[in-house]
Amino acid sequence: MGKTLAEKIFDSHIADKPFEGTYVLKLDAVFCHEITTPIAINDLVSRGMDRVFDPSKIKAVIDHVTPAKDSKTAEQGKIMREWARRHNIKDFFDVGKNGVCHALFPEQGFVRPGYTIIMGDSHTCTHGAFGAFAAGVGTTDLEVGILKGVCSFKYPSTIKFVLKGKLQKGVYAKDAILYVISQIGVNGATDKVMEFTGEIVDEMSMESRMTLCNMAIEAGGTSGVCYPDMKTVEYLWPFIQKDFKSKEDALAEYSKWKSDSDAKFEKVIEYDLSKLEPMATFGNKPDQVKTVKEMEGTKVDQIYIGSCTNGRIEDLRIAADILKGNTISPNVRGIVSPATPKIFKQAMDEGILSVFHDAGFVVTNPTCGACLGMSNGVLAEGEVCASTTNRNFYGRMGKGGTVHLMSPASAAATAIAGYITNSKLFAGK
Amino acid sequence: MKNFKGKVLFLNRSDINTDEIIPAKYLTEITKEALKPFTLEDLKLDTFNPKTDLSGKAAIITRANFGCGSSREHAPWALEVNGINAVIAENFARIFRQNMYNCGMLAIELPKDKIEYLFGKYSGKETEIDIDVNSGSFIITSGGASEKISFEIDGFSKALVEAEGWVGYADKKY
Ligand code: SF4
Fold first, then answer.
1. Which among A73, A186, A396 is the nearest to B28, CB-wise?
2. CA B16/CA B13 separation, integer angstroms
3. Taking the CA atoms of chain A, what radius of gyration do you get in angstroms?
4. Superfamily per CATH, domain B5-173
5. What are the residues whose beta carbons fall under 8 Å from the beta carbon of A311, sequence distance 6 or more?
6. Is beta strand B128-132 parallel, antiparallel or unpaired with respect to B5-11?
7. Would the pLDDT of A423 be above 80?
């Protein structure tokens, strides 16, 4: 019988099978950031085990709060910095070079089809967009990953999603994934791999696929995955050209990382998204989703465009297209955080940052910041934010604040109007 | 092994996420103990007040998908420093469940009807629990009456509880 993509990756990375159904996998990469890693480092030090399994496979960044906002965050950064130096971790990204982990690491070419990747961050599922098995883990798993290069998982079953049709103009990957989550619920894919296939996914850029896979965890998914194709090869080409004679060769090699036609899935779910409209969340769970039309008129105080979900160049271009020649409502404040320095530079060179600036947005350095309510745009009690991030949990962006998740296009339109509204209003003006 | 015996806290809601268990703004703390006063601070639940209802508890019984959201191991740690080493639920978010076992704590999954039964019979009453990992069962007691309920635990999870966590286990083996 055939295998799913995730099963193929598992079967090719076995370090141990200590118990029936439990797989200890060899890791191709361990990603680290300054919120969950310092405690792992401190624990290793206190156990007298301050070692790393392979410094070239460890990638580290300070991204959640950067530059440091207070003594405690400064200390977290310091622990990371000194650890990276001590262990000769070359791929360490500090102020000036740092950005949101799940945008930065793919951009640096650290993700490949067929890889196993862990990080002490739930949105690690993002990297499945390249046909990798990438999963968020806690600090203890991270610690063992750093020390031994292994991590335990249950053998995964996969839900295959077939996204059919063609997205309408003004409808994006974010709308598609919000719709999927609304259909299966926040517990709908718990312990499962979510495989995204179909014409809509084939059409998507790597950036859009990352947006899709990024939110797999919001349905409980262990990882989101897409099959590698020519777009994957094109994206990775600068990093892999020395390994392959041609792009076709690379594609032939990477094409093995897809599910067999006779693979056994937990479920296969098909959605025709041709008529899908822009979506937004209400309430405090990412499966509480309505159309933007239904949410029309909901007043907001802040607009946030950024994060590992929608802070990439494609997202900024889409938002800037709508903002161009407009100014944001005097009743709102707008914040845009390009996700990485490269994206920041691109946006600067393309005049996108000027568009944001002229519309009345503040442009911040690349960081997670407001997304998790730690810095750069924390909400006050009772305030409402239209946000391109991935979580609308109660208090997520600040105690007592409310978050409505949506696409960059809808967020930009909402910024101009001052209340939730459809981007069609402003597109092309 | 950790202590799995004591008073039960009932949290009657599904999808309690790790931001509710411990908000992100406390993730700059680098000791577990510092999380103690903020545990479940952002949990919106009519019948629950973190200031008074957490103290003296050893286990939580709740509904489905407990621990969803962020990967922060601060969530189990926050429970641990409050003396809570076991959570019983219909199911858990994968990362949270693994984090619990990685710390030598228990995340026990019971079928929906059993959870329903436990809520119906015990929530709102002084209830005590005594969990025996070896036999895969617990004794639940309230108002002088008690009963035994069994649960399933896989070999790996059990080994982690016995080793008091994954670091010790992995260091010996890999
Ligand atoms: S941008 Fe938000 S969701 Fe993404 S890694 Fe940062 S804090 Fe987490």
1. A73
2. 7
3. 21
4. Aconitase, domain 4 (3.20.19.10)
5. A100, A103, A305, A337, A338, A339, A343, A366, A388
6. antiparallel
7. no
Residue of A33, A144, A397 for testing the chain B interface, max B β-carbons within 10 Å = A144
End-to-end CA distance of chain B: 22
In this prediction the ipTM stands at 0.95
Which pLDDT does position A429 carry in this prediction? 44
E-assigned strands of A77-170? 92-93, 116-119, 133-136, 150-154, 157-164
B39–A contact, CB cutoff 8 A? no
Quick: pLDDT tens for B27-81: 998 789 999 999 999 998 988 999 999 999 999 999 999 999 999 999 999 999 9
Across-strand partners of A333? A302
Tell me if the bond preceding A228 is cis, omega within 30° of 0: no
Extract the tokens encoding B105: 């704590």
- Number of separate domains in chain A: 3
Expressed in angstroms and rounded, the spacing between residue A132 Cα and the centre of ligand 1 is 20
Task: Pick the last residue of a domain from A154, A176, A199.
Answer: A154
Nearest Cα residue to B64 out of A58, A334, A185: A185
**Ordered alpha helix ranges (H), A120-205:** 139-148, 173-184, 199-203
CATH number at residue A60: 3.30.499.10
Question: Which run of H or E residues covers position A240?
Answer: helix A230-240
- Ligand 1 atom closest to Cα of residue A374: 7
Under 8 Å between Cβ of A111 and A254: no
Chain B residue with minimum CA distance to A49: B171
Please tell me the pTM assigned to this model.
0.96
